């Protein structure tokens, strides 16, 4: 079962798993245009800020809470509580594009897991209700009995990798350097997974102000590669 769980995580967070993450830069595209991000050092610091002080940390807390509300600790799933959590997750998206980012990836992820990893205990998400990406991952993880700590680690690693990939496409960092930068983020990713493992909704919060501002300003950027 341990081997299956590891394979499953690798599959879910593989770049080939088509949740559409490549289409979003989380505001980094605007940060490049304004000169806030100019190369490997500034890109890495920017991603560190998002992880520790912004959406990365909040996503991990939402994922863990969704895992618990979906029965990850051995109880039954509470759909009403999950719907409330999903609504909160959408509300935490500061900009229209950030809400689009998490809702579209969440819907795509949930549908893909349902079709590629069918499970008799699958929770049918109500039509018309948005499902944030971390909440979708937490629900799927609980249903498939994914252990929470490795699931958090895999999610955060994929989160950081997607932002680094945006930097590659925006030509502020090369592919080889991006791999080294990804490896350098391991202590932060590991510490964040440990911290959010036992965090509650009371621990939600963000002070990644510049990142939020770039997300808002990206909505009116004229020439764009990314949707956020």
Question: What is the architecture at the second tier of CATH?
Answer: Orthogonal Bundle
Annotation field: number of helices: 11
Describe the global form: globular
Sheet/helix structural class:
mainly alpha
Mean pLDDT: 95
Beta-strand residue fraction: under 5%
Q: Which spans of ≥5 residues are poorly predicted at pLDDT below 50?
A: none
CATH topology: Urease accessory protein UreF
Please name the fourth-level CATH homologous superfamily: Urease accessory protein UreF
Say what oligomer this is: single chain
Number of domains: 1
Distance between the termini: 37 Å
Helix content: 55-70%
Listing every helix as H and every strand as E from the N terminus to the C terminus, the arrangement reads: HHHHHHHHHHH
Task: Report on the architecture of this protein.
The longest helix has 22 residues, at about 150-170. The chain is an all-alpha fold and about 230 residues long. Helix 4 (about 55-70) packs across helix 10 (about 185-195), helix 6 runs parallel beside helix 7 and helix 8 (about 150-170) packs across helix 10. It has helices spanning about 1-10, 30-35, 40-55, 55-70, 80-90, 95-115, 135-145, 150-170, 175-185, 185-195, 210-220. It has one domain (about 25-220): Urease accessory protein UreF (Orthogonal Bundle), CATH 1.10.4190.10.
